[in-house]
Amino acid sequence: MLDGITNILVVGIGGQGVMTAAEMLARTALDQGYDVKKTEVAGMAQRGGVVSSHVRFGPKVYSPQIDAGEADLLIGFEAAEALRWLPHLRPTGVAMVNTLRIAPPVVSAGLYDYPADPIGALAATGIEIHAFDAGAIAEELGNPKLVNTIMLGAISEHLPFPADALKACIVAGFRAYKPKLAEVNAQAFDAGREAGNVKAISSCSSV
Amino acid sequence: MNAVVQAKAESRHLLSGNEAVARAAWEAGVRVAAAYPGTPATEILENIALYPDIYSEWSVNEKVAVEVAIGASLAGSRALAAMKHVGMNVASDAFMTQSLAGVVGGLVIVVADDVGLSSSQNEQDSRYWGRFGHLPILEPADSQEAYEMVKRAFDLSEEYESPVIVRMTTRVCHVKAMVVVDGERIERRAVGFQKNPQRWVMTPANAKPRLPLMHQRDQKFRELSEASDLNLAFPGADRRIGFITSGPAFMHVRETFPDAPVLKLGFSHPAPLDKIRAFAGQVDTLIVAEETEPLLETEIRAAGLAVRGKDLLPRFGELAPSVLRPAIKPLLGEPYEVASRSQADLFPRPPTMCASCPHLGPYFALSHIRNLNIVGDIGCYTLGAGHPWNALDTCTCMGASLSMAHGMDKGRGESDDKKSIVAVIGDSTFLHMGMQGLLNMIYNRGNVTVLLLDNRSVGMTGGQENPGTGQDLHGLPAPRVDFAKLAEALGVRPERIRMVDPYELPTMVKLVREETKMEEPSVIITNRPCSLTDRFERFRAFTVLDDKCTGCGNCIDLGCPAISVARRETVTAKSGKTKELVFAQIDANTCTGCHMCVETCAPDAIVQPEPQNRVIRIHAHA
């Protein structure tokens, strides 16, 4: 986190809630008194394309974009997308990855291959990477849409502000607009926080 | 989103550039706002619609939107029109003349250039319109500036009785950043239209005396630009290079070269040449960092200054730090090292149509019929050019399908001899600029089969309303155009207007086959709503019975993202020929139970686990 700027890259597929997760991080950072910018490279992402959302905060943020090799944190909502965007992470950064695999139609049609072991490929880089099945946790809690909050819980210990600040921002959002979902999202956040504490499958110290 | 509508002065908010424009319009006392949806500008009107003090509408196209705003302005109301860059091409006829006549209530045109083409058919530099139309251009670099400049633009417009252009780009529209909201709405009384034919009736005799006035206004704007605090110099310790920049490129320049002096142009046209000359004298090498065309660079060079720009920087795409660094660092004798860790070599994830998309049926039909030239248009159905359909041959601009198809019919060449010409267009695009093409084709005795894919929404931009949906911008009931009657009124014979359920694949294929054989124009209208809108009704998912699936792969050809390949097997027939079998599976979370794929499955291997809900109804809205 050079120059007091924190760079977080959230990546996944259109419809997974990547942009909402990035919004939560940005709002919390704003509440914490930082200058914030959030930008998406989404294109026609509503139609199943790649989504990457950049969140930058610090004393003063100019460019909204995170360059290759400059992300401090990478949140991957899908295994191959985490692999695709890994070059954006600093060697000293941390990646939190959902082990979910989604093959697009071009793979299903046999035009391209989905990597056999994306998590293994991530681990081979020697960067600190935590990987777990967020979908399974969401299912246990009874709502597949909770993956979003679970991933935020998982990364929360690595932020420059208290994890509880992020949790409070998420829960307050649900209290205001979907109060019935506030409690289960609080649980999802905590479950994610615990899951994010799993031992890294690799780390920079191991190289 | 709602928070900012009620935001009190001095409060901090995380706003996109588009949200900031809406708040500023409200504070500026705007009374009328109009737009046609288009990425990245769509959310400007969607957010303005949240403010009850502003009359706002989805107009049928950008020209209409600007004309609505002009009318409101002549009645004395502040008015705003918003659009994406290509919308300006459509709207230009209106403002090119209104620039001459001028305005009464402040009139601001907010145009969003899709620099980098995230969702557009081309990349344009809307700053040309300022030069072309003798209009000033303000260029915000982030949300806070968008908020401030829109308010300034209204004051400028009203004081000098000129439309003002605010040029945004995707990287302003869609970036969320901190905005300190510093005001409340100022109500402005509209005096009403004051008749003055010499001023408002642009006949040659009346327009001619306005020309010198327009040029005097240009001169006034140039003086204002020289004095404007929106054109601001940032000192820097390292004077080997100095930048002149505008819009989001300013942010990238500051990020990449924090020690270099920068002259930031917020009031970028007319350019403040004296201010630029003074700045140039303070640096060794002057570099213009502008997205996308070398407009300022050309003007600065014409003013006799030595300047660098597009000889170093690309003429297209964003000037992100990753672009600036390798282009300019070598100039400082600081060779830029390309990051050694390369992007993983992975499969692409191109955008695709959605599960149960009503366009899947027509494209299944088009991909199964030979000898067609398929002329496309702007919308989700442009994706029909991709895998697995490969059933769209052109895409140019809004409404072009019908007229280009007509031209392709009239200009048939040798290889077109036995081909039928098909035009594919959506409901909103047809109403935007497609109707004229149909009228023209009928009038000139053309022969094109038109597929009018009515999914009752502006799909690609997120499901906005249009005159064919029965609802307005605010979700309130609105008169709904009858496409069949409209086609008939334009001259299509009633026998050749065919309504079809796009989910009924055999009927769909049969109809397209029949109509493309006709020697006269036909219009085939589909009638299922976009599956991402509230009008779409979802049913229980289907599944593939593995023991019944024969591996024919027909359902895969539909291109539904809920259907994927479970496994492949190569079998050898008795004749000795080998054949690849493709066994399918359906993702229960993605499938909406639309039953389209069932129509492709001869062995009845696709079933709903409990079949009692199989009847699908189209949701009827009043």
Task: Tell me briefly what this model is.
The complex is a heterodimer of chains A (207) and B (622). Chain A has 207 residues and is α/β, with parallel strands linked by helices. Chain A has eight helices and six strands.
Protein architecture, described:
The complex is a heterodimer of chains A (207) and B (622). By secondary structure, chain A is an alpha/beta fold. Chain A is built from eight helices and six strands, in the order βαβββαβααβαααα. Chain A has a domain at 2-141: Pyruvate-ferredoxin Oxidoreductase, domain 3. Helix content of chain A is 37%, strand content 22%. Chain A has a six-stranded mixed sheet with strand order 2-3-1-4-5-6, with helices on both faces. The longest helix of chain A has 15 residues, at 163-177. The two termini of chain A are 21 Å apart. The mean pLDDT of chain A is 91. Chain B is 31% helix and 18% strand. The interface between A and B is large, with 51 and 48 residues.
